[in-house]
Design brief:
Layout (H helix, E strand, L loop, with lengths): L2 H6 L3 H21 L4 H18 L12 H19 L8 H8 L4 H5 L8 H15 L5 H12 L4 H8 L3 H18 L4
């Protein structure tokens, strides 16, 4: 079952996986959008509370739905609320208004549909998810996946090294990728 489905069923282990996987990503999104360090943990808590309250409405079967995208939307809204609560009070005059209009609005940046991109965010998320699912996998399945998907070796070469058929290597890779998508909440 996917992470989203396990959370919908109320699994405590799924919640632990969710926090382990997504808390660092939420922290990164907040940092990239200029949220001060002291507020990032509070926003993270707001996001997890909103996930708890809204998980029943998340439909992983929707063609364009991704769990990470849904969490981003919740995070973006929490960041926007934080910005609104912490806006400095305006002080007068047209000169002040002209100067303020020259400053980029962080709320506009956070309003996009796509999360801010840090080249390491996705890689780190996938790495955490792989660490979570690896104990569930047989060693030869993991080796076949790792050598083909990560190291880029051919299925034929890996099959020879692991005394498997090429088809078995491709199936192992596919099985791990399918399980990874489920762990991320997207399948």
């Amino acid at each position: 079952m996917s992470l989203a489905a396990r959370i919908q069923e109320g699994s405590a282990l799924a919640w632990a996986d969710l926090v382990s996987l997504y808390a660092p990503l939420i922290e990164s999104w907040c940092r990239q959008l200029g949220v001060e360090a002291a507020a990032r943990a509070d926003i993270g808590q707001e996001v997890f509370l909103a996930v708890h309250r809204g998980i029943a409405k998340f439909d992983p079967t929707h063609p364009r739905a991704t769990f990470r995208g849904w969490v981003w939307t919740i995070t973006r809204n929490a960041i926007l609320q934080w910005w609104r609560r912490n806006e400095p009070a305006g002080t007068g005059g047209s000169t002040a208004l002209a100067r303020l209009s020259e400053i980029p609005d962080p709320c506009v940046d956070a309003a996009g549909d796509s999360p801010p991109t840090d080249s390491n965010d996705l890689a780190n998320l996938i790495s955490r998810a792989l660490d979570q699912i690896r104990p569930e996998l047989e060693e030869h399945t993991w080796e076949a996946f790792w050598k083909t998907a990560v190291l880029g070796q051919s299925a034929t070469r890996v099959a020879e090294e692991l005394s498997m058929t090429s088809m078995a290597v491709r199936q192992a890779k596919s099985r791990v990728l399918r399980r990874l998508r489920k762990q991320l909440g997207d399948a």
